[in-house]
Amino acid sequence: MKKQQGFTLIEVMIVVVIIGILSSIAYPMYDEHVRNARRTAAMGCLMEQTHFMERFYSANMTYTGAAPPACPGQVTTFYTMGTANLGAATYTLTAAPTGAQSGDRCGTFSVTHTGTRTNSTADNCWR
């Protein structure tokens, strides 16, 4: 009698269950990693804009009229960048999450003319 080769339905179902369990663990970790990368890019853009503002102030002795450079597309897709409290001696730069990033645990980031860095949630996301 010839022995049949192959997989039984039970063996295939066990493999499907194992793949499902691994996927349910891996995907949230991947998603959080992507959010962290986007957040880091937004922080880097805010710091770039801060450096621009300080160079502008050094050249003009005022922040009035300063227009920070735009962030790269991968940042503006997930964050709305803004300038508030723009005056002769003050400014506040902000990055508010939008779209897929809106559920971020850190919320809106801001940097002031004194270098004070804050975010809108209790987590200290500036490292």
Automatic annotation (TrEMBL):
Coiled coil: none annotated. It comes from the Bacteria. Gene3D superfamilies: Glycoprotein, Type 4 Pilin (3.30.700.10). One of its GO terms (biological process) is type IV pilus assembly. Signal peptide: none annotated. It holds the Pfam family N_methyl. This is Pilus assembly protein PilE. InterPro entries: N_methyl_site (IPR012902), PilE-like (IPR031982), Pilin-like (IPR045584). The chain crosses the membrane at residues 7-30. Keywords: Membrane, Transmembrane, Transmembrane helix.
